[in-house]
Amino acid sequence: MIRQLTSLQNPFIKDVLLLREKSRERKTRELFIIEGIREFNLAVSGGFLIQAVAFCPDLLPAEEVTKLSGYSFLSNLFEVSRQVYNRIAFRQDAEGVIALSRPRLYGLNDLILPPSPLILILESVEKPGNLGAVLRTADAANIDAVIICDPLTDVYNPNTVRSSIGCIFTVPLSVSTTQDTIAWLHSRGIKSYATSLGADLFYHTLDFRGPTAFVMGTESTGLSELWLTKADHAIKIPMGGKIDSMNVSVSAAIVVFEARRQRNFNS
Fold first, then answer.
1. Distance from the Cα of residue 141 to its chain's centroid
2. Which of 49, 67, 101 is the last residue of a domain?
3. Which domain holds residue 60?
4. Are 147 and 118 in contact (CB under 8 A)?
5. pLDDT tens-digit profile of 130-149?
């Protein structure tokens, strides 16, 4: 049942504003914001538990409104004016739907992997935009899982969700510590390849057809000493320019698509 929401003092509006600004609120209440019909549909397809939805009929196509009203799991569905929508939206006069959802993070042992998985690991990621961009790469390459070690940002920061253009809902995500992840990889027989400017091996000289995990560090400091000493191999990307730094999502794309090429772009 659709309810009209006109007051900016409504609890839903207050929830969205709090969750948008405060990481602690998102973690404590185990809720995060989804904005955009594509993102919302991907979240639903991915099995995320949607708690509430607000839509603006002035901005949302009629067929999407009909689809929303047909979802039996939506007990909190609000129709809002453009003024109310623009108060809570990041993108003014765009998309027309905002939802609150439960996060969905896997434990390492809950990840369902094929015999020769291809995994992407990020250590101490600190910029939501970078994380979102890496998730887009992971989706494009059909990565089996993304593991985030010791994150310095909230995985479900609204900027991550937005910059991932919904790929945060299409790739299995796990959050763990570096130490636990290293132990888990060893127990599963998954070889780890740490990207490092100081490595001796170029990435394209190795065989990534077996169980493989690529490990990426931050652009500012790179990987921790623990990864550099415990990974099976350290690898680097040959660069011929004047600088020795690339965006982490670009670096991730280079190595994971080499692995996909070696696998004939099959799983």
1. 14
2. 101
3. 2-101
4. no
5. 999 999 999 999 999 999 99
